[in-house]
Amino acid sequence: MNRRQLFGSATGLALAAQLAVPSAGAQDRAPNVIFFHPDGFGANHRNALRMVEVGPDGRLEWDRLPHTALYSGHMKDGLTGTSHGGATTHAFGVRVQADSFGMDGTTPIRSLSGFEGSIAREAMARGRCVGLVNSGAAYEPGTAAFVASTERRNSLAEITRLVAESGVQVTSRAANAGTCPVACRAATARVHARTA
To answer: Is residue 10 part of a domain?
Structure first.
């Protein structure tokens, strides 16, 4: 495994500073938010990346972002996280059981704000353009749990259907971003160009 593959999950982190700029005509709205869910990427990976790329005293683009946070990644019922439980925690802002995909186990949940849905669904309900950029399949928990809720992680066809019907713009590195609104399409093109 080469360095690029090893640290590939961190590649997009450097883009936030460039992409998190309000679009033209958005003076009356809050700035854009770009959330990265680098599955399995923790403080130890970030420190290793720093040492390899810029040395122990160097600063990564990640370090230059105006707002970042590290958090405890344990689940409601375990000391370590899972892809789907961790993504659900990110999407809703509440700690859930490890075996959760947009729910707390098999129980529907409200987000930390009290909204009946994830932060992505809340943003869409408020008229925000929401896009999911994924380098894997549509049912990948790191993105799908933001718009799909199901009792079983292995319900791949159901998760894919829920993502497709969610109203969110979805693209992957191999997909055509032509269905995205202009602002989303431009941001997606920049992501693809920088991670190619």
So the answer is: yes
* 147-191: pLDDT as tens digits: 999 999 999 999 999 999 998 877 765 444 444 445 555 554 554
Integer CA distances (angstroms), 149 to 47, 51, 88, 167, in order: 33, 38, 9, 14
pLDDT digits (tens, 9 = 90+) for 12-70: 322 232 333 344 444 455 566 677 767 677 788 888 999 999 999 999 988 888 877 77
Same domain, 7 and 88: no
CB within 8 A of 91, min separation 6: which ones? 102, 111, 118, 119, 120, 145, 146
Same structural domain, 114 and 56: no
State pTM to two decimals.
0.69
In a domain, 28, yes or no: no
Q: Assign 101 to helix, strand or coil.
A: strand
Rounded to whole angstroms, the Cα distance separating 153 from 18 reads 34
